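User: Could you walk me through two proteins back to back? I'd like the raw sequence and the C-alpha cells for each, with a short line separating them so I can tell where one ends and the next begins.

Assistant: Of course. Protein one, sequence then structure:
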Amino acid sequence: MFARSICGEGFPDFYVKEAMGKRPTCFNWLVDRKLKNLFDTVGVCKNMDDYGYRVDENGDYLVEDCQTNNFALYYSSPQSMTAFKALYENKNGLQDKFVDFWNVTSKALGGNPYVVGYDPLNEPFPGNPAKDFKNFLPGHVDRNFLAPMYS
C-alpha cells in the first residue's frame, strides 16, 4: 500500500508525507466534508486517521492495526490517491526518486543469475480517479503514467 503512513510499505515515508502534504483529499476539502456520509456508506474516501489506529514513534500506523482490515480498503483513502497521483505527476521529484532507486537496484542485481526480473510497482492504483475519471478507463494510466515512468 505504497508506504507505512498508508498501512503499507515500499516508499520512504518522508518522501510520501512530503508529496501528500498536510491535508490529502479525494475531491477537495469542502466536497469531501459534504459527502462524508455518502463516502462512509459506500466505503470510499475514508481518511486513514478515521480508522483510529495506534501510531508508532514516526506517526505511522501499527502494522497489527492495519492488518485488521483488508489492505484494498486503503487504496481509496485520500492519502493513497494523493500519493499515487504525486508519483505519476512527479510531485516534489517523487517519481525521479523512485526511478533512481530502481536504476541503482537493477544495476546492482542485473548480473545475478538468480534474479530473473522485478516488479517495480506492484498493483499500482490509478492515481486519483475522483479528480480525473479518465484514470479508470482501461489503459489510460498504463499509457499516460506507467509506461513513461518505466521507460
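----
Protein two, same layout:
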Amino acid sequence: MLVTEVVGRLDHAMALNSQDPHLDALRAVGERLLLFEGQDPTTEVLAKWIFDGVAARLASAEFVTSDAGVAYPVPRDLELERVRVWETRTSWAEYVGRDD
C-alpha cells in the first residue's frame, strides 16, 4: 500500500509542467492535474518523483498494511534503492538513490 499511495496519484491524472501555457484552460474543464514545478513530467522526472515519495513514506512509516489488511512493521534500516519507470517494453528511466 505504501507504494500504491504514491503511484496512485498518477492514476487518471494529467501530469504537467506548472508553467504549461494551457494550464488555466485545463483547470477550467476540471481535469485531474498533477503539476511538476517548472519541469516537464518526463519519465526521468517521474522516476525521481516516485522515488522521493516512497522514500519519504518509508522514513516515516512504522507499519505498512497489505491489501489483505495485514500490518507489517517497517524495519528502521530499510532503504529504497531505485525506481524504474517503463515507457515501452524497451525504453525506461531509472532513478537510483544516493548514499550520502
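The chain has a mean pLDDT of 90.

Let me know if you want the two compared in more detail.
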